[in-house]
Amino acid sequence: MSATSVLPVLATLATLAGLLVLSGCDGPARGSGGGAGAVAGADRAHQGRPHARPVDPTRIPGVGERLRRRIPADSRQVVAVYGDGGDSADSTVVLYTRRGTAWERTRGWPAHNGKEGWTTDHHEGDGRSPVGVFTLTDAGGVLADPGTRLPYTRSAGFAAPRWWARSHWHDFDYVIAIDYNRVKGTPPNDPTRPEGGAAGGGIWLHLDHGSGTSACVGLSGVAMRYLLRTLDPDRHPVVVMGDRAHLG
User: Fold this and answer.
1) Taking Cα atoms as reference points, which of 126, 77, 136, 133 lies closest to residue 246?
2) How far, in Å, CA of 148 to CA of 176, rounded?
3) What's the longest Cα–Cα distance across the chain?
């Protein structure tokens, strides 16, 4: 074989050797980072992102059949309040949006509920938030409307009393009424209690002061502004709220 005919063969062998070396370098890296652990990690990262769908996209995670049946059929926005425990003031709020038959996780935030936890039989002054499904129809606050589609009432009458702790003074800069024992279509601070005063009322989503509430749900200013700008009466928003045991 002449020198000129050997050269192409040698070039081909060198190329094959290079490919084998590259395969040897990439193989272990893929194996150590591409096995079951890596798949699980990627799945966890996906689930943590906004808009990630639950395992069964037709159901809202953590909400059992009893409460699920109470969500109106035409509702396409659900604010889920997941209480950490029956006697805990700590909770997590997640907004879900329904597209077709699937519920998509839109956004979530840490929150606080009643300082004594939760109850299925709320009474005035018990310090517990009521478990249940309630519509969200009206909003308001001390500050100007940030751009909500809900009917919004701005009034100094929402201001927290100045004899409250200073940390509570801005609680009601923004509020969204939870339709528990109130008349829909009225300002959140309307005092009418259809089921009587003993059943409590004036239960809102409002700004968080860093600890438990009387019965409301407290969220950050960022969360409240987002909800106010996102909740849409045409999508019939509701809140599903309770500690995780009662929700399930």
Assistant:
1) 133
2) 10
3) 106
* Contacts (Cβ under 8 Å, ≥6 apart) of 172: 141, 142, 158, 159, 160, 204, 206, 207
Token couple for 136? 């969200």
pLDDT in tens, the chain (248 residues): 444 443 343 343 333 333 333 333 322 232 333 333 322 332 333 333 444 444 789 999 999 999 999 999 999 999 999 999 999 999 999 999 999 999 999 999 999 999 999 999 999 999 999 999 999 999 999 999 999 999 999 999 999 999 999 999 999 999 999 999 999 999 999 999 999 999 999 999 999 999 999 999 999 999 999 999 999 999 999 999 999 999 99
How far is it, in rounded angstroms, from Cα 104 to Cα 47?
A: 11
Label the pairing between strands 238-243 and 132-135.
Answer: antiparallel
From the list 216, 205, 197, 138, the residue with the least C-alpha distance to 173 is: 205
- Whole-number Å distance between alpha carbons of 114 and 214: 5
Helix (H, G, I), strand (E, B) or coil at 230: helix
- Kindly state the tokens that stand for 221: 């200013």
Distance separating alpha carbons of residues 42 and 36, to the nearest angstrom: 10
**Helices first, then strands: H and E counts in the chain:** 5, 12
CA distance 113 to 211: 8
157: left (phi over 0), alpha (psi -120 to 50) or beta: alpha
Identify the CA nearest to 202 among candidates 129, 148, 152: 129
Structure tokens at 34: 């591409």
